[in-house]
């Protein structure tokens, strides 16, 4: 149980408006530093496009100043990028994978429900959940599912969409 108290997961929308990205990154960095200063060492990201990528890259940046923190990638399957069309997104994904401290695959290959399995794993192994979830616009999908699951599990949720 002790490790859970030192762990934070991330969940958020895949699409982030360019005009919001820098401000969101600043809020994200502040939130992560606050958790680090309160003893959080482990940060779990799901490897998706958008907020997951932004969160993972921010943790990697912060490792320079906080070398004890760890980035744990919890990926839904080994072939997650199989249908990604943007080469730059795949390069960034591989960059993050190469620098992660640990990689966990919740399924060998893509199968129905593997994304939700990944999301539950992230929440089940964390005390904190930093999210970027605009619940005025979305009530379904992976982010909504994960935030609702985190609430039901009693996790501390920090929603950067409303800070």
Descriptive notes:
Helix 4 runs parallel beside helix 5. The protein is globular, with a radius of gyration of 15 Å. The protein starts with 6 loop residues before the first strand and ends with a strand. A six-stranded parallel β-sheet has the order 4-3-2-1-5-6, sandwiched between helices. The longest helix has 20 residues. Helix content is 41%, strand content 18%. Strand 3, helix 3 and strand 4 form a beta-alpha-beta unit. It has five helices and six strands; from the N terminus they run E-H-E-H-E-H-E-H-E-H-E. The chain has one domain: Rossmann fold. It is α/β, with parallel strands linked by helices and 163 residues long.
Give a brief description.
The protein has 163 residues and is α/β, with parallel strands linked by helices. It is 41% helix and 18% strand.
